[in-house]
């Protein structure tokens, strides 16, 4: 977590063919694995991270925070460690103690080296190669912990300068870890202070994933001021999902010095797409971003407004987190998207299928609660098409508040959804889906839908 960057024009997304990913691991892993773009725990159950970041290396005596974090309902904690270039190195004994605290509190440990933050722009920052040296130096504490630990090689490993070597350097770092005998799932952060405004990680993710001989790498995007609209959030995450590449939101907040992130859209999209998220950070922030403390002064009874939103708000940790099954928890499938507290009512209800030229669409209410609901629409091509438009008219005052995998606009009660750049072209018989969050007042009947292809 740190700086604001000036947003420049987007680069073209890589060709779909370049995003084809082979997800079968090269060998039977001892812990977490990636399959079909999703993270599975050691029991083979889907696992969706819901948790927070904790700055252990700067506050090493705050070991009670692990139990306090667990009490929020979190299933994961991302722990800040230091490799010695910028902060005092966390030695193997301390790393082993951190893992023990995670296990005692039934938390999955994501361990990260923070010294790499902003390399190329931040004076004294460590390289990814130095981060790998660190992991090898503490390997004794990590071997055998693959069921409980994910290795995040280095935090925000490049700033806004000299980031062009991110893909090559990240691939090399992954391969060095594998050669050294690490069987853990590896997490890699984006450049540009973690926010990837140049799309360097996005456009090179498939190549980096395939550079891992175990095909067991997860990508982490940090969402602050660059991600201040729902459209930017849904587009970025949606491209990874559509490409079958595993993605998590490794850091985010409700405000920042570089802009105002849309935390509601981040959390709603992550929940709807079964993407993990980890809020920054438990406590101890300084330098003008103290508002990012989830609790004040490490006191779990003193939630900040950001902490209240993250833990108890709509799509928050308490409502959506599922404990990893390696600790005896559930299957890892999060509960349907909803506000905290109310229970969804009713099963998914499909609409009549509508089609007027090359495609059909089916509308379903996949989750409903007091005043709100989640809708999902499946589009199927009757012939090869290059784009699609789905329309419907609400009859009971419903409105759409947020959508993913489609550009959705409303005019009165009429809603129009158009494909985005990566899911418009469908072969005959091919299909894609998009979803949205909405509100309702008097009722929530399923409307008829119409699909038109181009």
UniProtKB/TrEMBL annotation:
Listed transmembrane segments: none
The enzyme's E.C. designation: 3.2.1.4
GO molecular function, one term: cellulase activity
Residue ranges, annotated region (Disordered): 325-359
Record's catalysed reaction(s): Endohydrolysis of (1->4)-beta-D-glucosidic linkages in cellulose, lichenin and cereal beta-D-glucans
Low complexity: bias regions: 333-344
Signal peptide: 1-28
Gene3D superfamilies according to UniProt: 2.60.40.290, Glycosidases
GO biological process: cellulose catabolic process
Alphabetically ordered keywords of this record: Carbohydrate metabolism, Cellulose degradation, Glycosidase, Hydrolase, Polysaccharide degradation, Signal
Domain CBM2 residue range list: 352-454
Enzyme's top EC category: hydrolase
Pfam families the record matches: CBM_2, Cellulase
Family: Belongs to the glycosyl hydrolase 5 (cellulase A) family.
PANTHER family referenced in this protein's UniProt entry, alphabetically: ENDO-BETA-1,4-GLUCANASE A, GLYCOSIDE HYDROLASE FAMILY 5 DOMAIN-CONTAINING PROTEIN
Entry protein name: Endoglucanase
Species, as recorded: Catenuloplanes niger
């Amino acid at each position: 977590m740190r700086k604001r960057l000036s947003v420049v024009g987007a680069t073209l997304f890589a060709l779909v063919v370049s995003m084809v990913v082979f997800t079968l691991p090269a060998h039977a892993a001892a812990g977490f694995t990636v399959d079909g773009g999703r993270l599975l725990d050691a029991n083979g159950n889907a696992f969706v991270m819901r948790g927070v970041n904790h700055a252990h290396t700067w506050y090493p005596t705050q070991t009670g925070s692990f139990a306090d974090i667990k009490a929020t309902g979190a299933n994961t904690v991302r722990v800040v460690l230091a490799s010695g270039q910028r902060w005092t190195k966390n030695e193997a004994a301390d790393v082993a103690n951190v893992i023990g605290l995670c296990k005692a509190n039934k938390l999955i440990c994501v361990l990260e080296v923070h010294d790499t933050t902003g390399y190329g722009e931040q004076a004294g920052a460590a390289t990814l190669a130095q981060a790998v040296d660190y992991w090898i130096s503490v390997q004794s504490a990590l071997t055998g912990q693959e069921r409980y630990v994910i290795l995040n090689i280095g935090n925000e490993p490049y700033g806004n300068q000299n980031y062009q070597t991110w893909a090559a350097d990240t691939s090399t770092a992954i391969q060095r870890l594998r050669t050294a005998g690490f069987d853990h799932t590896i997490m890699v952060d984006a450049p540009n202070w973690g926010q990837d405004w140049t799309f360097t990680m996005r456009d090179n993710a498939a190549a980096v994933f395939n550079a891992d001989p175990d095909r067991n790498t997860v990508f982490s995007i940090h969402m602050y001021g660059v991600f201040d609209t729902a459209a930017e959030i849904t587009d970025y995450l949606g491209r990874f999902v559509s490409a079958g590449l595993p993605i998590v939101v490794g850091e985010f907040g409700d405000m920042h010095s570089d802009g105002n992130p849309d935390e509601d859209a981040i959390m709603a999209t992550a929940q709807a797409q079964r993407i993990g998220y980890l809020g920054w950070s438990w406590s101890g922030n300084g330098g003008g971003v103290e508002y990012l403390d989830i609790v004040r002064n490490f006191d779990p009874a003193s939630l900040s407004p950001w902490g209240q939103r993250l833990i108890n708000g709509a799509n928050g940790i308490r409502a959506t987190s599922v404990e990893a099954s390696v600790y005896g928890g559930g299957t890892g499938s999060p509960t349907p998207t909803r506000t905290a507290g109310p229970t969804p009512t009713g099963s998914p209800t499909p609409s009549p299928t509508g089609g007027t030229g090359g495609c059909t669409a089916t509308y379903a209410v996949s989750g409903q609660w007091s005043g709100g609901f989640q809708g999902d629409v499946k589009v199927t091509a009757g012939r090869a098409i290059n784009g699609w438009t789905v329309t419907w008219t609400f009859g009971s005052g419903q409105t759409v508040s947020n959508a993913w995998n489609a550009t959705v606009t409303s005019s009165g009660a009429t809603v129009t959804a158009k494909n985005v750049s990566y899911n418009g072209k469908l072969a005959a018989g091919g299909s894609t889906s998009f979803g949205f969050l909405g509100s309702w007042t008097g009722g929530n009947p399923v409307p008829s839908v119409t699909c038109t292809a181009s």
